[in-house]
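Page 47, continued from p. 46.
Same chain as before, 264 aa.
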Amino acid sequence: MGGLTVLKELQQQLPNESFLYFGDTANVPYGTRSQAEILGFVRQILCWMTSQPIKMAIMACNTSSALALDEVRAEFDIPILGIILPGARAAVKQGKRIGVIATPATVASESYPQAIQEVNTTAKVFQEACPEFVPLIEHNRIREPETLQIVHQHLHPLLQQGIDTLVYGCTHYPHLSGVIRQVLPSHVKTVDPAVYITTAAKQELKLLQLQNGHAAQTTRFFVSGCPEQFAELSYQWLGFLPVVEKVILPELASPQSIEAVEQI
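Result:
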């Protein structure tokens, strides 16, 4: 569900482009997995995507951007954009005491502190791992009272540090923005990296002269898990019930993967 926050921004800012959306629902959440596992998943997904084909890949996941981006950029001959650097640059423009909420894997990678301090060495960065957030969203528990308590628990240490800016260091987390704003003081600004990776994609397409000169096609949705479950849960954010196709992820890296796509 996390990548839907990025897809929404892409569709708004790049209305002439066509999108292929892949959600690795069979292996979510990534945030508690090892780097080797995540790299393997990303390689398989990109092998399948490039067979479609695609002209650019946008890694709409902070964890995979932190742990796999450099490796797959060296292995694939299409532009691949990660979400962390655009988010870090935006955060530095917003404040000087920056809180980052992210998955345990993204926090452990130190990717956000490194990216933020590369832009501004004087910025202070405070991180908080929030392993419960993704399962709460994926299981449609956003509006439960317990969710507000969990969000408060994780934001409290950052507020104790006097943050003036909060970065959504996971693409799922904007789905919790209504709950998060209940906990944040009004003066604390939020940064959704989805907005800024979209701007970066727009600039990259123009620079590489890859802009679409024809009418955009309907977005196609693919998942590695249950298509019906994804369609039903995504309705509240997409505003319509998408047609979702299933891909068998373990076979994605093989030439036979194209035949593994099953229309649901």
